[in-house]
Specification:
heterodimer; A: MetI-like fold; 2 domains; flat; B: alpha+beta; five-stranded mixed β-sheet; 30% helix; globular
């Protein structure tokens, strides 16, 4: 076990190192001169040269890269080009709690509803209720957020115009602001989790140990809760790793359309603005989150499923 | 050069005008005792790019900075220079030296007195190494010795002298009529040394200056809240606060407005696809902008090194169809370089490039390409950022095909790639890969024709990417740029503009329009010659609930 963690930690360092190099290489070679962008199209060769020197763009690429790595290891992510008053870490530090809060809420909602719907559909297998539930879940899973958001907006606007209680369509801070984004973020996951749990539940219900449990004379609800559900939930753990990694980096579309000040909001704007320090920082943050969460998932799986541990 | 922040400057300008004018009240409701809270969205950003005046660049920053800070002078409703921090000024040495008399009793929002020292400090700071990425150099490098501070060879600007606490003298390298206009841009606005020194890295979180408001709270990545400056020289504004949320997507801002959560939206970005849904509302306002979209030509390379070819292309464009049918009237047809409303606008110049299919054919035939025969393969380059450009390019393509028999490709590029290519074209116009012609835009930095004529088309200037060059044009603008007499200066720009239009240095396409929604409960906003915007006199603005 200890050896596994050690190996994984080593590979983690390698992965992160590769990510810093890749993001640097992509940024370095991408078309679009960040200094020209910064100057907003005002041609001024003297100032252009000055800014190139100031930001180190006059150095060869390897010097720029190693300086970047050096600063990164010292916790210095540099200054944003777009927001010259603010260091990159401050921009990201503002966004992470917001994205986490939103993502966690959405994840909890999707697990609660997804698992419930999945279990019910499995128990009602091949009845009209199963078909209806599975159908709804398929729709939720397949409707993209950029379609769902306008639908919710139109509904919300109709409520407002009718003088009925309505929700704020964007913003952040009050509890009302959470409702629509959480619905949108959770929708696809509810559909996915429900389908996953349904099929895994059906598989478990066919297993010998369930028949044994029933034969022992246990009540049906006890069989479901203690034996079937526990086994059926295992695949959910594999899903949670990557899903929780994205909690940290935020939901790009949802944060943008609902004006939620999370990391996703920041990342999308940074890409459009050629704000390389912010792009690099958010990419590394995402990579770090994915790698760490996958490591934790594997560990959790080992703990939850004795077969993996012994194997 | 393609102007990224485009409408930017222009709106900034309008925002500045806002601080000013003595104009016509739009709504006249009896002001309530307390002024209410004004909720006004900043579209297109997820964080205020900057609040420190020397870093002003993006229109949203210029807008907020102009509410919190102020300079020596400002623009009035007729776009004339009006006193602000300086009560009056004298111009000496034929426009090379300006002596400003600082307003007596002027105070920062915290109550500290403002003296000439503060203005000198602010200018020296703006040119200092910490603000190399600011805009002071672009607007104010004509101040003697300013660039020495930027390069580090001097600590203070030799051309800025404090005569006494109430008197500031600024000397320029060359006489300039538009210097005062340049001072209306935030780069030179006065900041408090005490505030900066107390918290050098985050003083703007609670920024105050001499403007009508001061920062109460800047929730980073979310919103900024301003409250009245009790020491504002025109009196304390009646509004209790201005809440300005940052909303990236203009469609989201519109939804917030429609659900009653905003009082003003659209000043920085409006979802143009929703125009038809709101344009009949009483609170919908449309503002003409000092903003021109145009076609620029590579004058250094065939076929557009021949003026007759450029003229043929210009005369073959049916702008009325382009604007009214293709653009559905969302913009205004442009026939001049200097936009309407700007000093020096010349309506008579509008006919120079008027649509004339027969004349266009003749011009092209005279240039050696009868009916487009043997015309080289060329492409019109556009960027993908502006949703109007593909429609316009396709319509132009068809017009040139039908009238001239010339096949033009459309080269659509990502904005950054487009800017790179345009810069490469400016540096190496004869290179085979250099752009042939391109759609670009220019928005005013300040309302002076110098910004549209000299700075765009004079031989060798940075923004003249297409290398248009005419000796007579250069002579006229060089004289006008240093002429202190508007009566002779403006006609010189008009003559130069006529030359550039005749030779098609630019083919202007349309002037911009800004669209916004302003709730009728907002009182005291005014109409300026540039349309509607919250006015000068913030002491009179209120919101009725």
């Amino acid at each position: 076990m200890g050896r596994t963690i050690g190996q994984r930690a080593l590979s983690l360092i390698f992965v992160l190192f590769s990510v810093t190099f890749l993001t640097f290489a992509v940024s370095f070679n991408a078309p679009g001169d960040p200094i020209l962008n910064m100057m907003g199209g005002r041609q001024d060769p003297a100032r252009y040269a000055l800014l190139r020197t100031l930001y180190g763009f006059d150095q060869p690429w390897y010097i720029q890269y190693f300086r970047y790595l050096y600063n990164l290891l010292h916790g210095d992510l540099g200054y944003s080009y777009k927001y010259p008053e603010r260091p990159v870490w401050a921009l990201i530090a503002n966004g992470v709690p917001v994205s986490l809060e939103l993502g966690l809420l959405a994840l909890i909602v999707s697990i609660v509803f997804g698992v419930a719907a999945g279990v019910l559909a499995a128990l009602w297998q091949n009845t009209w209720r199963d078909t209806l539930l599975t159908g709804i879940m398929l729709v939720l899973y397949s409707v993209p957020s950029f379609v769902l958001i306008p639908i919710l907006w139109i509904g919300d606007l109709a409520l407002y115009r009718a003088g009925l209680p309505s929700l704020p369509v964007a913003g952040w801070g009050k509890w009302e602001h959470y409702v629509l984004p959480v619905i949108v973020l959770a929708a696809a996951n509810v559909g996915f989790i429900a389908r996953l749990i349904r099929s895994s539940m059906l598989e478990v219900l066919r297993k010998d140990f369930i028949r044994t449990a029933k034969a022992k004379g246990l009540t049906w609800s006890l069989v479901i809760r203690r034996h079937a559900l526990r086994n059926a939930l295992l695949p959910l753990i594999t899903l949670l790793g990557p899903a929780s990694a994205f909690l940290v980096t935020g939901a790009f579309v949802v944060e943008n359309l609902f004006a939620i000040p999370g990391v996703g909001y920041l990342a999308v704007q940074a890409i459009g603005q050629r704000d390389y320090p912010v792009i690099q920082a958010t990419t590394i943050l995402l990579a770090l989150a994915v790698v760490v969460m996958n490591l934790l998932t594997d560990l959790a799986y080992t703990l939850a499923d004795p077969r993996v541990r012994s194997g | 050069m393609q102007k990224l922040s485009t409408i930017t400057k222009l709106i900034c300008l309008i925002a500045l005008i806002s601080l000013i004018s003595g104009c016509v009240p739009v709504t006249q409701t009896a002001a309530p005792a307390a002024g209410g809270t004004l909720r006004w969205s900043l579209e297109g950003i997820n964080e205020l790019p900057a609040l420190d005046p020397p870093l002003a660049g993006a229109s949203q920053s210029v807008g907020v900075i102009s509410l919190v800070f102020e300079g020596l002078v400002r623009l009035d409703g007729q776009l004339n220079i009006a006193p602000a921090g300086a009560e009056s000024w004298d111009v000496k040495d034929g426009g090379k030296t300006f002596v400003f008399h600082i307003r007596k009793g002027l105070k920062f929002a915290n109550g500290d007195p403002v003296t000439a020292e503060d203005y000198a400090y602010s200018l020296n700071r703006a040119f200092g190494p910490d603000f190399a990425n600011g805009n002071a150099g672009y607007y104010l490098s004509n101040i003697s010795g300013a660039t020495d501070v930027t390069s580090g060879s001097a600590q203070t600007i030799s051309g800025v002298k404090v005569i006494d606490p109430q008197t500031l003298e600024i000397s320029l390298n060359t006489p300039s009529v538009y210097f005062l206009y340049q001072l209306t841009f935030p780069a030179s606005f006065v900041v408090s040394k005490k505030a900066v020194d107390a918290n050098p890295t985050s003083w703007t979180d609670t920024a105050y200056g001499t403007g009508p408001f001061m920062v109460k709270e800047w929730k980073h990545n979310q919103s900024i809240t301003l409250v009245p400056n009790p020491n504002y020289w025109l009196g304390k504004p009646q509004l209790e606060a201005i809440e300005m949320p940052f909303i990236q997507d203009a469609a989201t801002a519109l939804k917030l407005y429609q659900t009653g959560e905003l009082d003003i939206m659209g000043t920085y970005n409006f979802p143009t696809d929703q125009l038809s849904a709101v344009s009949s509302l009483p609170e919908f306002k449309q503002v003409n902008q000092f903003f021109v979209a145009y076609i620029g030509f590579n004058n250094a390379k065939p076929p557009f090194n021949n003026p007759a070819v450029r003229q043929a292309f210009a005369r073959a464009v049916d702008k009325a169809t382009l604007i009214n049918k293709v653009m559905e009237g969302a913009v205004v047809q442009a026939d001049t370089i200097i936009p309407p409303g700007m000093p020096g606008y010349n309506a008579a110049a509008a006919k120079i490039q008027s649509f004339d299919a027969a004349e266009a054919k003749t011009l092209l035939a005279n240039a050696g390409y009868p009916d487009g025969k043997d015309f080289p393969k060329i492409a019109l380059s556009i960027n993908n950022q502006d949703p109007n450009f593909p429609k316009i390019a396709a319509a132009l393509q068809q017009m040139w095909q039908e009238t001239l028999g010339v096949t033009v490709d459309i080269n659509t590029e990502e904005l950054s790639k487009f800017n790179d290519d345009l810069t490469a074209t400016a540096n190496n116009p004869e290179d085979p890969a250099a752009l042939s012609f391109y759609v670009s835009v220019w928005g005013a930095d300040y309302p002076d024709p110098q910004n549209f004529v000299s700075q765009q088309l004079r031989s060798g200037v940075g923004n003249n990417n297409g290398h248009y060059s005419n000796a007579e044009f250069d002579k006229l603008v060089d004289a006008a740029d240093v002429d202190a007499n508007q009566a002779t200066r403006l006609p010189a720009y008009q003559q130069a503009e006529t030359i550039a239009l005749t030779e098609v240095g630019w083919l202007p396409l349309y002037y911009g329009k800004a669209n916004m929604l302003i709730r009728t409960s907002v009182n005291g906003l005014v109409v300026t010659p540039q349309g509607l915007f919250p006015a000068v006199d913030w002491t009179k603005v209120t919101v009725t609930k």
